[in-house]
Automatic annotation (TrEMBL):
SUPFAM superfamilies: Thioesterase/thiol ester dehydrase-isomerase. The keyword Iron-sulfur does not apply. CDD domains: 4HBT. It comes from Drosophila albomicans (Fruit fly). This is Protein THEM6. It holds the Pfam family 4HBT_2. Keywords: Membrane, Transmembrane, Transmembrane helix.
Length: 193
């Protein structure tokens, strides 16, 4: 009985579902899907369930979009072997910034996919574009830009180990504007400090 209580307490205190889903996402990708080039788009599927909806029980809440983006990034790292390459260099990955543009809600019980693509990089970070697309109509419901800071690792050097990334793509205009906005915010916060 005491083990059951302990397990129940751990389940309540820790977000066990998150860790289980991480394991299944990474292992499922590695075991059952082909490896992808770092410049290819990866796809992960989901379903808006009753655990994902907002207070009106009609569509996915904003926090769930961000959580689903995490799983899609883990999946991208697993299929491209990028995270393993970072770890081999003694580094890690940290979310530096995210910008999400919501275009239309994902209704409850609607299946969707998240497309993840590396769109640019600099010496310290990679930049991903992620799209939520509903399967019933192919509509892009939300678009996210993500800055993934890679620690203890020169990203330009790392990506040179991928032949398909020998030529750095041109920075997308929306990414440039977003990074400019981040820089303005950084300067403002420095003045406040």
């Amino acid at each position: 009985m005491s083990w059951l209580v302990l397990l129940l307490i751990l389940y309540i205190v820790w977000d066990v579902n998150y860790f289980i889903r991480c394991i299944f996402t990474v292992l499922g990708g590695r075991l059952f899907q082909r490896k992808r080039k770092v410049t290819e788009t990866t796809t992960i599927y989901g379903l808006c369930t009753s655990q994902d909806v907002d207070i009106f029980i009609q569509h996915m809440n904003n926090a769930r979009y961000l959580r689903e983006l995490d799983f899609a990034r883990f999946h991208f790292y697993a299929l491209t072997n990028l995270y393993e390459q970072v770890r081999n260099r003694g580094g890690g990955a940290v979310q530096g910034a995210t910008s999400v543009r919501y275009r239309r809600t994902i209704p409850i019980f609607h299946p969707y996919k998240i497309l993840t693509k590396l769109v640019w990089w600099d010496d310290k970070a990679i930049y991903l574009e992620q799209q939520f697309v509903t399967l019933t109509d192919g509509f892009v419901r939300a678009v996210a830009l993500s800055k993934q800071c890679l620690t203890k690792c020169d990203v330009n050097e790392l990506l040179k180990s991928y032949p398909e990334a020998a030529q750095k793509p041109q920075m997308p205009e929306e990414l440039k504007l977003w990074l400019d906005s981040i820089e303005v915010s950084r300067q403002k916060l420095r003045k406040d400090d």
